[in-house]
Task: inverse folding
């Protein structure tokens, strides 16, 4: 039986508005963070967006829809972040963003993160969405997430010293802002169109096989 | 025209779709598989895969946070 949860929605909605107003009273920026955070959560939950699926499903199931969604997201955020960073650059301020050196620690961290993501059955944001949906088992994932992150922050300096690290590469420093932006968007859009073609050709092939052998 | 059932309640991605694929391989044309899951991402995974592999499908939300997916093997 499906239970009507409208009164829960109403209560939560009121709590959200009240918290937002209280935050706005003390620090308006925190209220903006609060509403944006809730907005992101809503989009992630409704769209079932999942980075783990985006990287796992093409290999495991041959479905590419989320991989394409991640690429679209990267294209949009490239343009958005370039606008923000350029604004800081023009004003002569330090450019915001995670401009860190690349090294073996990056690859190793990526591998460990990927391992955790597959074991948990979701990326960080979709695990948080699961908790919001009421999945109790994902509280364990959250505990792992927090302890793992703390461990990483605590030992970060050691990893950078113990493993070979190259100096940070920030494309606009080498190519200029316009060409760097165009290059990155072109490469991402190129991958997107290759995936679209792969998706179409795999469906065509399957169709032909099915028409040739009706008993399979 | 047999109907098979698969209960993957409590299983997380990618287990529901992997088990669905295993059973679907054994289905004959016209057979139906009913998959029951409480993992929202898996519902989308299974529907995406069913559409790509030409299964007829419907989905029904039977309880809060529980879905039943009906997959019928096409010719």
Result:
């Amino acid at each position: 039986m499906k239970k009507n949860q409208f009164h829960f929605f109403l209560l939560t909605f009121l709590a959200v508005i009240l918290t937002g107003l209280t935050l706005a009273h003390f620090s308006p920026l925190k209220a903006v963070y609060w509403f944006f955070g809730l907005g992101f959560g809503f989009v992630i939950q409704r769209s079932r967006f999942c980075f783990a699926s985006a990287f796992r499903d093409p290999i495991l199931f041959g479905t590419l829809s989320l991989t394409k969604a991640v690429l679209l997201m990267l294209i949009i955020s490239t343009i958005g972040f370039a606008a923000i960073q350029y604004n800081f650059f023009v004003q002569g301020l330090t450019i915001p963003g995670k401009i860190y050196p690349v090294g073996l620690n990056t690859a190793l961290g990526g591998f460990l993160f990927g391992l955790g993501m597959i074991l948990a059955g979701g990326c960080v944001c979709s695990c948080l969405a699961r908790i919001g949906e009421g999945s109790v088992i994902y509280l364990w994932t959250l505990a792992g997430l927090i302890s793992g992150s703390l461990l990483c922050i605590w030992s970060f300096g050691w990893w950078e010293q113990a493993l070979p690290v190259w100096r940070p590469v920030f494309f606009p420093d080498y190519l200029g802002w316009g060409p760097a932006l165009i290059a990155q968007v072109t490469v991402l859009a190129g991958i997107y169109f290759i995936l679209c073609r792969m998706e179409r050709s795999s469906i065509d092939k399957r169709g032909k096989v099915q028409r040739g052998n009706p008993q399979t | 025209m047999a109907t098979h059932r698969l209960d993957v309640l409590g299983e997380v991605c990618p287990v529901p779709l992997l088990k669905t694929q295993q059973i679907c391989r054994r289905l004959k044309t016209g057979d139906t598989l009913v998959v029951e899951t409480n993992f929202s991402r898996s519902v989308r995974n299974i529907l995406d895969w069913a559409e790509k592999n030409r299964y007829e499908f419907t989905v029904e939300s039977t309880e809060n946070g529980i879905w039943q997916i009906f997959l019928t093997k096409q010719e």
